[in-house]
Amino acid sequence: MIIENGPEPVEGRSQPLHPKNNAIGSKATIYGKELWIEYDDAIDIAEGEKVTLMKWGNATVSKKVVEGKNVSLWATVDEEDKDFKKTKKITWLCADPNTTVEIKLVEFGHLIDKAKIEENDDVEKLVNKNSKIE
C-alpha cells in the first residue's frame, strides 16, 4: 500500500502498548509512504473504500492494481478522521528496509508419534524425524 501523503523520510512515533492503559508502556512504530499489508486484506479492499490503518488512522483508497498474486493500493491517510465504525481494520508494517528485519519461525512438533508407548513397541519406529519445521 502506497500512502500518498505518508511521511518521507520514514519516521518513528511512540504508541501506547495498550490503548486504555498507558501505565503498561509504549513502543516505537515506524511510519512511511510504503506499507506491507496482508494479501487477504488487500484483495478485499475496493477503490474508493475507507479503511482504518491500526495505530495510524483512516485511509481512503484511490487506486487498486492487481497483477497475479500482487495487489498494489494507493491511499491517503486522514489522521483527523476519528470515525472508525464500519471500516475494515488493517494491520500493517512500514516497508522500510532500514527498520525491518527478516525472521525465521521455528516450530517443534512431538518427538514421539504415539500417545502411549507399549512394552513391545519399537521406539525407533515411533520417533518423528521431522519434528522441526522452519
**Helix proportion of residues, in percent?**
under 10%
Known CATH architecture: Beta Barrel
Report the oligomer. Answer: single chain
Supply the CATH class.
Mainly Beta
Distance between the termini: 28 Å
Molecular structure report:
This protein has 134 residues and is mostly beta strands. The protein has a single domain, classed as Ribosomal Protein L25, Chain P. The chain has 2 helices and 11 strands, in the order ββββαββββββαβ. The strands form 4 sheets. The protein has a 5-stranded mixed β-sheet. Strands 2-3 form a two-stranded antiparallel ribbon. Strands 4-9 form a two-stranded antiparallel sheet. The longest helix is centred in the first third of the chain and has 6 residues.
Task: Kindly summarize this structure in a few lines.
The protein contains two helices and eleven strands. It is mainly beta and 134 residues long.
Descriptive tags:
Ribosomal Protein L25, Chain P; 2 helices; elongated; mainly beta; 134 residues; two-stranded antiparallel ribbon
